[in-house]
From TrEMBL:
Keywords: Cell membrane, Membrane, Transmembrane, Transmembrane helix. It comes from Actinomarinicola tropica. It is a multi-pass membrane protein. This is DUF2510 domain-containing protein. It comes from the Bacteria. Pfam families: DUF2510, RDD. One of its GO terms (cellular component) is plasma membrane. InterPro entries: DUF2510, Pra-immunoreactive, RDD. Residues 3-29 form the DUF2510 domain. Residues 71-209 form the RDD domain. Residues 53-66 have a biased composition (Low complexity). Residues 38-66 are annotated as: Disordered.
Length: 218
């Protein structure tokens, strides 16, 4: 059986999504809006054969993300991340550089031993400003809009993997916190690979916060 949307054989809703192996919890009432069956998917692993041709509500093709929304492509996600890094990174660097750059001094204290000590005066406040800006950007926008400006430009949304809602403040904060692990090579490589190979294209920070990234429905 091909994956797709079929008439709900259980007659609880108008249509239900079949992933090729069994019935899922993704359903539609026929109005073009998809959502998750509150009963879950356990009762629908097996069931009567579908009736009628496969179809896609609201023109959505392929497997649903949350509430039937199509998952964002890997390249769209990488492009959005690149845009976000420019949008938040460049202004922050300019501001912190202008405020604290003149106060950062590098002092060579021992040329004989070849040892150099770097004295970063006001480095702490500069780092604090950077973290506050990133917190407001990556957490605030997700909670209020479901997307950062970079994702908005590409047409993506971050939603709860189960209910399709915008992330809660706690989930958005945890999602942002996990991204700091990407300064290490292995977590960074793993999360990039996961965008391409994970069935729901969830990265490490998506798994931690139970979120997915979907294409915005216009």
């Amino acid at each position: 059986m091909d994956p797709g949307w079929y008439d709900d054989p259980f007659r609880r809703f108008t249509q239900r999504y079949h992933d090729g192996d069994g019935w899922t919890e993704h359903v539609s009432d026929g109005s073009g809006v998809s959502f998750v069956d509150p009963s879950g998917s356990d009762p629908f692993v097996a069931g009567p054969p579908p009736t009628g041709p496969a179809w896609s509500p609201s023109g959505v093709a392929g497997p649903p993300g949350a509430a039937g929304r199509p998952l964002a492509s890997p390249w769209a996600r990488l492009g959005a991340n690149f845009l976000d890094s420019l949008i938040v990174g460049i202004p922050t660097s300019i501001v912190t550089g202008a405020l604290f750059g003149p106060a950062i001094e590098v002092t060579e204290i021992s040329t004989f031993g070849g040892e150099v000590t770097y004295e970063w005066e006001f480095h702490g406040p500069a780092l604090l400003i950077t973290l506050v800006v990133q917190l407001a950007y990556f957490v605030g926008f997700l909670v209020q809009r479901g997307a950062t400006p970079g994702k908005m430009l590409v047409g993506l949304k971050v939603v709860d993997a189960d209910e399709g809602r915008y992330p809660s403040p706690g989930a958005a904060f945890l999602r942002w916190l996990v991204t700091f692990s990407y300064i290490l090579v292995i977590p960074f490589i793993v999360t990039v690979v996961m965008i391409f190979v994970d069935p729901r294209r969830q990265t490490l920070h998506d798994k931690a916060a139970r979120t997915i990234v979907v294409r915005e429905q216009r």
